[in-house]
Amino acid sequence: MGLRVIAHREALCLPAYGTIPRLTALTLAVILGALFPAAWRAHGSEWDRPHIIWIMADDLGYGELGCYGQDQIQTPNLDRMAAEGLRLTQFYAGSTVCAPSRCVLMTGRHAGHAFVRGNARNQLAVQALRARDTTVADVLHQAGYRTALIGKWGLGDADSSGYPLDQGFDFFFGYANQVHAHNYYPEFLWRDRSKQLLRNEVERSPRYAGFRGGWAIRRVDYSHDLFIDEALDWIDRQREQPFFLYLSLTIPHANNEATRALGNGAEVPDVDPYADRAWPEPAKGHAAMISRMDRDVGRLLALLRERQMAERTLVFFTSDNGPHGESGFPFSHFRPAGDLRGRKRDLYEGGIRVPAIAWWPGVIPPGGVSDHVAYFGDLMATACELAGAELPADDLDSISFVPTLTGRAPQPRHAYLYWEFYEGGTKQAVHFGPWKAIRQPMLHGSVELYDLARDPGEQLDLAARRADIVEQAVARMGEAHVPSPNWQVPAP
User: Fold this and answer.
1) Please, are residues 90 and 371 in contact by the beta-carbon 8 Å criterion?
2) Domain spanning 424-480: which CATH class is it, in words?
3) Which helix (H) or strand (E) holds 224?
4) pLDDT tens across 315-362, in order?
5) How far is C-alpha 77 from the chain's CA centre?
6) Dist CA 449 CA 432 (whole Å)
7) Does domain 25-415 have CATH number 3.40.720.10?
């Protein structure tokens, strides 16, 4: 099933993948005290465990922020966040679409043996976490953290075992399923287990009517603004214990139903500061959505500073997968994947490599750039290390990247990262060392091979020249893929 957990709190890697025996609690405490700055540990034992805020955009490409090379969309606050913290250049989503990527994030298992491996369209039962699944929120809640999810969930509706309040979250405000989340002006949002009615009126899409898909014919309450206000208020009320906030934004995902019906799925209250640009309206809307999100990330960081919480809070910003072209704007307009090949629904780098910024004043040195190869599944081990919690199972694919954040210890590395995907004829990919291999269709298709160190844009297929590396890649794919009755691979 691929690499299993080598969390830094349990083992030190010397140099590559070797380990020394499990450390005693006393030895670990001494090492942690030496490794981490006083800002983390100066508030007494309770604040040895920092707040954790995970902010996730939806379908934001690797190249859509200024600090990643974007020159048309204004993102000054995220650019400042990167300048004050750490920017990761080889950070990967759990998958190339919503639900499986979020499953990897929450459970620490890669897509080869995670329960949710795709967007299930009308079969939400196979897209809901099971009661026996353990999430990051479960672990942190049991460790004494307050836990909240604000925004989009996508791993279980209100009548399923996957509902956020049954998966470790104390508080939930937002969308339970991702079709409902397409609409930025919905009729209601979930608040814990109740529907909070909004002032919008919605035209239902017959394609997904059962899942509340549609577009607004009366627009009053913009869900993103409600999420930000709720998040700021929730943070401001957390004074008694450490907390975990999963702020799962929907920007800049398109309202696909509005695109089909109206030709423009970039729903935003106004297109400032791009109103006077000679761009298609969907392009103005797309850019305005990202700049609106940027503004609000700035508000959140400002609140942490004002409340003197910044030095005991890790804030991580990323995206759930690569960029879309689904709101009606020309995909090439902003070059949203930068120089990377592919987009959402691809396993090329553009579909899975995502922007990632870590901010923690006094702990993360400013202005850093790291090429450490990490991915969504690593949140589990990272959160456990920060919270002093035990990892929940021995069959995870999670390595703490706390050493990368602090720069004060050797960083364990994955033997490989693995993805698989079931749309478009199926495909799978593996990344090890400088090599990236993609096989389409899964299990029996032809293999493409790229040297990401020299060719991050995946333009030169080296499979015919490096049969030895292809053989290694195929072996890793075979090890990582575990068959699932819910996710069938078509016969050749």
Assistant:
1) yes
2) alpha beta
3) helix 223-236
4) 999 999 999 999 999 999 999 999 999 999 999 999 999 999 999 999
5) 19
6) 11
7) yes
Cβ distance 401 to 411 under 8 Å? yes
Question: Nearest 5°: phi and psi at 13?
Answer: -90, 125
Q: Which uninterrupted H or E stretch holds 217?
A: strand 214-218
Q: 285, 268 in Cβ contact below 8 A?
A: yes
Q: Which residues pair with 285 in a beta bridge?
A: none
Question: What backbone phi and psi angles, to 5 degrees, belong to 125?
Answer: -65, -35
- Cα separations in angstroms, 23 against 7, 9, 195, 399, 486: 12, 8, 48, 16, 40
Question: What is d(CA 185, CA 204) in angstroms, rounded to the nearest whole number?
Answer: 12
- 202 vs 452: CA distance, rounded Å: 46
Query: Helix crossing, 76-84 with 281-306: angle to 10°?
Result: 40
- Tell me the CA distances in angstroms from 224 to 44, 221, 268, one per residue in order: 36, 9, 9
Q: Where in the chain is the domain with CATH 3.40.720.10?
A: 25-415
* Per-residue pLDDT tens digits for 458-472: 999 999 999 999 999
